Amino acid sequence: LHFDTAVVLAKQKEQLAILQANQEDAIAIARINVNGQLGLADDYPMSANIAINQFQPALLGNYPTAKLNVDVNIQAKFLPTLETQMQFTARDSQWQGQPFVSKGLMLIEGSQLRNINFQASVANNQIKASGSLGQTNSQLDWQADFADLTKFGADYAGQANMSGTITGTFENLAVQFKQLAKNIRLPGGLTVATLAGQAAIMAGEDGKVAGEFNATQLTYAKHPAMDGSLTLQGTRAQHQINITAQSKELKFESALQG
What we know:
This protein has 258 residues and is mainly beta. It is built from no helices and 18 strands. It has strands at 2-12, 15-20, 27-38, 45-55, 66-77, 83-90, 93-95, 98-109, 112-122, 125-133, 139-146, 157-167, 174-186, 190-201, 208-220, 226-235, 239-246, 251-257. It has an 18-stranded antiparallel sheet that branches.
């Protein structure tokens, strides 16, 4: 069984709609072409190629300006259980006026995600992940290196590096990560000279949670600069968060139980 179709994801009368490709009375958000085939014997194999062209997320609402073109290849079999391999590549794409490059691969088997390999970059800012999720011994490693946040817009500045791991089943995930950021500026007038920290949340209701984050020269709007810290200790079921902040004019301390 072969299939081949072309549609437009569009906004029509302020509503999202999927229309025929030749319809002109709507604002096109993306143009989508799908072709492939489905076998009707053995394990019912399916293959499909999906081309997403001229996707503009800003037309959906308050989203960044971008123009994305993505090719997706899907290889699947329906028997004895559903198994799907998905591969995608972005081409000739931009995010906030910067070159956007991305590619990824993933195998889906029931509730398991295997052979995950993902990379994306906006100019010289990069994100990557590899590994698996869904089994007790699964582990996904990820890293984000934001060398220049100005590439995401005029309201952003600074550098940030984050990395971590996610392990276990979806019902009982464990997370560990660390981060270091410098000279950060964010929309709304928030600036931070340095922000460093790490945290770990282990699996299970009694899984240990621990974390520590420290910020220097934190400012917001016209408020005076302050240094601050946040610590987290305990278990998932019972933990405590301690927050301190200090400037030349004030000192603040608080403890929250959870």
